[in-house]
Amino acid sequence: MSVEEDTANHGRLLATVRGPQDVKRMTAEELDILAVEIRDFLIAKVSRTGGHVGPNLGVVELTIAMHRVFDSPRDRLLFDTGHQAYVHKILTGRQAGFDRLRQRGGLSGYPSQAESEHDLIENSHASTALSYADGLAKAYALRGEQRSVVAVVGDGALTGGMCWEALNNIATAGNPLVIVVNDNGRSYAPTIGGLADHLSSLRLNPGYEKILDTVKDALGSTPLVGRPMYEVLHAVKKGIKDAVAPQAMFEDLGIKYVGPVDGHDRDAVESALRAAKNFGGPVIVHAVTRKGYGYRPAEEDQADCFHGPGAFDIETGKLVAAPSVKWTHVFAEELVAIADERPDVVGITAAMAEPTGIAKLARKHPDRVYDVGIAEQHAATSAAGLALGGLHPVVAVYATFLNRAFDQVLLDVAMHKLPVTFVLDRAGVTGPDGPSHYGLWDMSVFGVVPGLRIAAPRDAATLREELREAVAVDDGPNIVRFPTGTVAADLPAVRRVGAVDVLAESARTDVLLVAVGSFGQLGLEVASRVAEQGYGVTVVDPRWVRPVPAELVELAAGHRLVVTVEDGVRTGGVGSAIAQALRDADVRVPLRDLGVPADWHPHGTRAQILADLGLTAQDVARDVTGWISGLDSETSEPVRLSSGRGAAD
Predict the structure, then answer these.
(1) Which of 90, 152, 165, 161 is nearest to 123 (CA)?
(2) 50/386 Cα distance (integer angstroms)
(3) Average pLDDT, whole number, for the chain?
(4) Are strands 500-504 and 537-541 parallel, antiparallel or unpaired?
């Protein structure tokens, strides 16, 4: 029953749900009505706040069935990834929080321990839940606790190698564990890879397995004849299965398999889950669902079935926000232009062709784009292979996800000095998706990689320019990183000193303000405010922040104070790198670095979080004025130290 077909219930049953026990008491007819009301509720709430509506519309019946079969929170329900847990939140008493979903002080878009005892892991990166589940099942077995562990994993997440590492260990351990494969044929986009072609219809028959075990035990007691006879019978069993349905890789691993079942048939899902729960070992329940089910605009959205839209009109599904030029759009256009000129340029993404802009290249040059699934490690090393083969790969992922491939970037790409360009979308503070999705770590983490260059464009023009500079490099890797959202107006430089853009300068050289990436406009506003206090500020954009440009050190030597402002963690960040460069050059100029503390910052809008961190023009200007006024009693001439141990505050 679709949302459009039922408008008379108005949440009557949903209003009675305070926890899973209320769902267990409902009749079959009431549960059907509840499913419709949940979809109505999701669409109404998420249309105002934005969020992951498509994935959750697809798991309504599945989640209801899970809460009827298992006893949360004693039984642990783990979601991979957590963006498909909205229905779980609804059924565990958090309906009121949806009015402020993904907003400051409201519900997280992912499971959250702070919100409910029903949430255990706050994962929002794919392919991790099975490893959590393996450890939990082992812990409960060792402690003698009779508790079920259930992991819901999407077919897209199963393209990640970590899932298969976990499955191998789960099969070896043999502990009771239920793995629900939510197979909608998609992650962000249609699921890529051989796995999607191997999900097939094997059934579990516990009675048959018990009979086989009995036969095995009986024959095992018969010397010489018994064991060979058992092997023959086992071979016959496998042969029959192969004749009826293709042998899936899951049973080859040693994990029993139920399915496929219609994920929108609650009775069928409940039956499969109860069988799996009672089996006594690891079982996979294969549930086939439809992303965006029950809401026509989502079902008809070919790009990503309303995976994670902003606020939208319920009737049409159109986004409420006015169209604007996004950072991703600029990158996508320029990459296609470069690829038109250079046949050696190819694109790679990890199941996010549309969100990262790689889809535009795929439409123009389909044979030159590779979507590897949710497998960032493989993406990096596959890119290394492409580079070894004479191509220049451009790997486009979210900044937060490249963290998963650090070892590959370090040893597989950089150590071989291979020309690979990593383009990091959603860098810096991204807002409503919360701390797991903030792209705060890249400039710090990857700054230690020898030979890797990092660019942080400030506007559309510099993004285009720096992307071209990156793909022109043929002796090592590059990172080009930019934030999410709308691109601000272009900010032309007053002049360029080597690789460094000077955005503003004054007759007085009191402060050198290094504004990293999208903080260029903030730098100009700070300079204007500080000038009102009688001090001169030179604002520069280094463009390439790693390695630190030599010209930046020279500019610093001509000022009384250096202040850096960056949209990344301070520890090991750009400010830290510049301070080290000053020490290495024997330049003693006080340096103050402003950035994001290495901590877990709650979700909210980007503006709210930056204000909390003191990274606004008003806050930075106040800090700069205080620091430079404190130096008035000191000499205005910088001092060079012969010891090579420069001072940085």
Answers:
(1) 152
(2) 38
(3) 85
(4) antiparallel
376 noted as active-site residue: yes
**CA dist 461 to 331, 425, 488, Å?**
10, 16, 10
**Residue 22: enclosing H or E segment and its boundaries?**
helix 20-24
With b meaning 16 or more CB within 10 Å and e meaning fewer, what string describes 282-298?
bbbbbbbbbbbbbbebb
Q: Which of 61, 299, 376, 566 is catalytic?
A: 376
Q: How far is CA 438 from CA 120, 316, 403, 433, 445, in A?
A: 21, 31, 11, 8, 14
Question: Which candidate in 291, 464, 543, 583 is catalytic?
Answer: 291
Please measure the distance between the N-terminal and C-terminal CA atoms of the chain and give it in whole angstroms: 64
Told to judge if 291 belongs to the known catalytic residues of this protein, a careful annotator would answer: yes
As beta bridge partners, residue 19 has: none
Q: Is the pLDDT of residue 431 over 70?
A: yes
Each residue's pLDDT tens digit, 41-90: 988 888 888 777 888 899 999 999 999 999 999 999 999 877 888 999 99
377: pLDDT strictly greater than 80: yes
For the stretch 530-557, pLDDT in tens is 999 999 999 999 999 999 999 999 999 9
Instruction: Write down the pLDDT at residue 215.
Output: 43
Quick one: DSSP state of residue 4?
Answer: T
Q: What is the pLDDT of residues 19-35, one digit of tens each?
A: 999 999 999 999 999 99
Alpha helices for 78-128 (secondary structure H): 86-91
Least Cα distance to 474 among 422, 421, 423, 424 occurs for 421
List the one residue out of 69, 385, 139, 403 whose CA is nearest residue 77. 69
